[in-house]
Amino acid sequence: MQDAFGRKIEYLRLSVTDLCNYRCVYCMSAAGVCKKARSEILSLEELAEIGAAAVRCGVKKIRLTGGEPLLRPGIVSLCRMLRAVEGLEELTLTTNGSLLPAMAKELRSAGVDRLNVSVDSLDSTRFRSITRRGTLADVQRGLAAAREAGFENTKLNVVLLGGINDDEIRDFAALTKDTDYCVRFIELMPMGVCAAWPRERFLSAQAVLTAVPELEMIGGDGVAELYRVPGSRGTVGLIRAMSGCFCARCNRIRVTADGKLKPCLHSAAEFPLRGKHGAALEQAIREAAARKPAGHRLTQCECSETPRAMNEIGG
Known about the structure:
Elements: E1 11-15, H1 44-56, E2 61-65, H2 75-83, E3 90-95, H3 100-109, E4 114-118, H4 124-131, H5 136-149, E5 155-160, H6 169-174, E6 182-187, H7 206-211, E7 216-221, E8 224-228, E9 235-239, E10 252-255, E11 260-262, E12 271-272, H8 278-290, H9 310-313
Parallel strand pairs: 1-2, 1-10, 2-3, 3-4, 4-5, 5-6, 6-9
Antiparallel strand pairs: 7-8, 8-9, 10-11, 11-12
């Protein structure tokens, strides 16, 4: 499956819920989101059907997202359904980690290959302030449970927040010394509640190279630049969502929990998939993917065009 610009679309981010047990300051308001009726959200069977159709169209990797995907009842069953899809090469999941202590083993046995865990501070007080609800101890227990369950090469997602967590860059990089973690620093994007934040909050990933000058570039992984501190077991990734546009090599599409395909995270364009089946569903996926724009118009001075918050799209 290709878009109009010849990019091969092989990666689907499939949101299973827009709900979350955190209220991260850059993602949603303190009040959270208006809960949709159950009938508005794709069923497990619909999610599995869309995932299977996407694979038949050429998708090789599916990432389950939210909100917080582990809040979705039946998430382990959905993982089993997707893992059984012929041709799917990789099934991954992004989580805040708080529910992993009870679910890591089940997810691993259901066929999830790898985890991304979001953690924006290693200071418990600051972590609570950023998430408004979470505790760092819960995430640490979740990471331990993931290791015990057999998950390897877990990615730790750190949103760079100027004046908030930039003094922790070296501490995060140090986590890679004796673990196989890939600590990925992600530039904050002006969308949703943080679109009107002051400019100093939007920190360039160059700050990581300044804070940890010993980092050596070792290649890339999708949209991430990969580095390693000499002698370390793990890696450091930089995702330059603002300072270095990677649209030309973007190979992903997204499906929201209410069944809309978004060819681009920052575009307002959405294409309904719900109610379509078989060849009609595949055609809808191909046609929507073909409408993927050449790139977003996101700059330090222009906000995202999508009317949805990140938790409504899928991280």
